[in-house]
Design brief:
Layout (H helix, E strand, L loop, with lengths): L32 H40 L4 H19 L8 H9 L14 H4 L8 H20 L15 H8 L1
Helix pairs in contact: 1-2, 1-5, 2-5
Pfam families: DUF4381
Keywords: Membrane, Transmembrane, Transmembrane helix
Protein name: DUF4381 domain-containing protein
C-alpha cells in the first residue's frame, strides 16, 4: 500500500494557487488603548514634576526674599553681619537642633559641611565670627559675605529636617496620660 496521492489526469491542469490576501497594515492613528494609557501616565508625571519644581523654586524665592528683607531691616554692616549669623543659626536648627549652640571654628565647620569649597572656615565667611563686633567692615567684604551666607541660608532652609512619625507620642493621648497619673 502506498500512500501517494493519485496522479492528475493526463490532460488536466493542476489547481492554480492564488496569492493569499493579507489584511491592510494597522493604521498609525488612532493608537491602541494601551498607548493612550501610557500617554496619560506620562502627561501626569510631567505635570507633577513641573508643579513640584515650581513649588521648590517658589520656596527658594520666598527664602531669598525673607533673607533680604531681614538683612535690609537693620542699619550698618556690623548689625547686618550679626543678623546674617542669627538667620544662619535659625536655619541650621532645621538640619541639626543642636547646631545653634556651636561656636567658633565648630560653627564654621558646620556651615562648610557638604560644601565643595570651605567658604566659611577658610574664606570670607570667617568674618561671621567677629564681623558683628567690628566697626570697620569693608563694603566688598560685606557684599561677598552676603552672597555666600544667602546661598547657605537657602540650602539650610530647604532641608526638611527629621521626618516626623505619623503617630503621636503616647503622652498626648488623654487615655494614656490618665493611666500614667493614676
Amino acid at each position: 500500500m502506498s500512500l501517494q496521492s493519485p496522479a492528475p489526469a493526463a490532460g488536466a491542469d493542476p489547481l492554480p494557487l492564488l496569492e493569499p490576501h493579507l489584511p491592510p497594515p494597522p493604521p498609525f492613528w488612532p493608537p491602541a488603548p494601551g498607548w493612550w494609557l501610557v500617554a496619560a501616565l506620562l502627561a501626569i508625571a510631567l505635570i507633577a514634576f513641573a508643579v513640584r519644581r515650581h513649588r521648590q523654586q517658589r520656596r527658594v524665592r520666598e527664602f531669598q526674599r525673607f533673607f533680604d528683607a531681614s538683612i535690609d531691616a537693620v542699619e550698618g554692616a556690623p548689625a547686618r553681619i550679626a543678623m546674617m549669623s542669627e538667620l544662619l543659626r535659625r536655619a541650621a536648627r532645621r538640619r541639626d537642633p543642636a547646631a545653634d549652640r556651636l561656636g567658633g571654628d565648630d560653627w564654621l565647620r558646620f556651615l562648610d559641611a557638604g560644601q565643595s569649597i570651605p567658604a566659611f572656615s577658610a574664606g570670607v565667611g570667617r568674618s561671621l565670627l567677629e564681623g558683628g563686633f567690628r566697626r570697620d567692615v569693608g563694603e566688598q567684604e560685606y557684599a561677598a559675605l552676603r552672597e555666600i551666607v544667602r546661598g547657605r541660608f537657602v540650602e539650610l532652609m530647604r532641608h526638611e529636617g527629621p521626618r516626623r512619625s505619623w503617630r503621636r507620642p503616647s503622652t498626648w493621648w488623654p487615655s494614656h496620660s490618665a493611666r500614667r497619673r493614676a
